[in-house]
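Regression test case RT-17, inverse folding.

Input:
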C-alpha cells in the first residue's frame, strides 16, 4: 500500500505542475499580444488542484472512505455546544451515506500546501500560539461535526436541496484518535521556515510530510520535471508509509 500512496502523491504533484504550466503559458501569450493592456502577474491559486488530485488519487486506494475537499465543518462538544467552524483541505469519512448518516465518522483531516512562501508564521508557534492551540483543543473535545451537502449554495435550487437533505453529521473520534496529516509539496520558496513549521505541527500531533526536499524543485516551472519529482518522492516511500499508517 505504501507504494500505491507514493504513486498517488506523485500523480498529484505532476498534475499540479501541468496546471502551473498552463497558467504560465497563458500569461506569456498574453504579454506577447501588443493590444493587451491587462497583464496578470500570478495565476489563480492552484492549491485547489493539489487538494483535489490528492483526494481523488487516495480515494482509489482507500475505497471504504469518502473524501471531502474544502468543506467547512462546524464542530460541537458532547453538550451540543458549538465550538467553531474549521476548514480542512481534505476531510476523510467512513460509513458515509447522505441519506442515512447516523454511523458516519470522521477518520482523518489532511491539510495541504504547495509551499510555505505565503504561510502566516503566527500559526506555527509551538506553546504560546493561542490561535492554533485553541483550535486543536476544540478538535479534540469535539464529538460531532455538521456540514452542508452543497458548499456555497447560492442558487434557489441548491438552497432547496440543502434544506431538503438537512445538515450532514459525522461523529468525531475524540482525543488522540483523529489522524491529522499536513503535506507540503515542496521546500522550495520556504524562506527557511520548514523546520519551524514541522516542529510546531508535530507538537500538535500532526504527521508532517514534505514531498520535495530539494529547494530547487517546485511545480511552478515551465520545464518538464515529472521525472525528478517522481524520483524524489519515491525516495520518501518509507516516510510516506509512516505518515499514512493507521489511516
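Golden output:
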Amino acid at each position: 500500500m505504501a507504494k500505491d500512496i507514493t504513486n498517488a502523491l506523485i500523480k498529484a504533484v505532476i498534475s499540479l505542475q501541468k496546471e502551473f504550466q498552463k497558467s504560465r503559458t497563458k500569461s506569456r501569450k498574453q504579454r506577447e499580444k501588443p493590444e493587451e493592456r491587462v497583464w496578470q502577474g500570478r495565476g489563480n491559486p492552484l492549491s485547489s488542484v493539489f487538494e483535489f488530485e490528492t483526494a481523488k488519487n487516495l480515494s482509489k486506494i482507500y475505497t471504504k472512505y469518502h473524501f471531502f475537499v474544502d468543506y467547512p465543518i462546524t464542530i460541537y462538544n458532547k453538550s451540543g455546544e458549538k465550538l467553531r467552524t474549521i476548514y480542512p483541505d481534505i476531510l476523510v469519512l467512513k460509513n458515509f451515506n447522505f441519506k442515512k448518516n447516523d454511523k458516519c465518522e470522521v477518520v482523518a483531516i489532511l491539510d495541504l500546501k504547495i509551499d510555505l512562501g505565503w504561510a502566516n508564521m503566527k500559526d506555527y508557534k509551538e506553546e504560546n500560539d493561542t490561535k492554533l492551540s485553541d483550535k486543536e483543543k476544540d478538535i479534540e473535545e469535539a464529538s460531532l461535526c455538521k456540514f452542508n451537502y452543497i458548499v456555497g449554495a447560492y442558487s434557489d435550487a441548491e438552497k432547496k436541496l440543502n434544506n431538503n437533505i438537512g445538515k450532514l453529521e459525522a461523529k468525531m473520534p475524540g482525543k488522540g484518535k483523529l489522524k491529522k496529516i499536513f503535506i507540503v509539496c515542496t521546500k522550495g520558496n520556504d524562506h527557511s521556515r520548514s523546520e519551524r513549521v514541522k516542529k510546531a505541527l508535530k507538537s500538535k500531533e500532526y504527521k508532517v510530510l514534505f514531498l520535495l526536499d530539494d529547494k530547487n524543485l517546485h511545480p511552478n516551472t515551465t520545464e518538464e520535471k515529472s521525472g525528478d519529482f517522481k524520483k524524489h518522492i519515491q525516495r520518501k516511500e518509507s516516510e510516506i508509509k509512516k505518515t499514512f499508517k493507521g489511516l
